[in-house]
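# step 3/5: fold
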Amino acid sequence: DHSKDEEERDAQGVVSTDPKSGAENTLSSAPKDVVIKFDKEIAAGSEITVVSDKNVDVVTAGNKISSDLKQLSAPVSITVAGTYSVSYKINWKDGTKSDGSYKFTVK
């Protein structure tokens, strides 16, 4: 699929992201969390990182895995407009690993 921005890679197993992926996805208010949902169980050590276009890390606390092991979230503090880069590393329950990244914009 060549229509996707080269900087965007969704890992296999990703069902949804919030905020949605896409630099064209411009939010009028900053999210409080970045949440990624999966179609299979993830394991400890999975992590979301979020940095601003000035390379400032905006994650404020540790990542949380939901009780059903299919959602990973990271609390963020976004106080300035700009484009934010989300990258994630996923450890699957079966021992395999995936990673991906995407961007969203806050105006």
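# step 4/5: annotate
The two ends are 29 Å apart (CA to CA).
# step 5/5: archive (pending)
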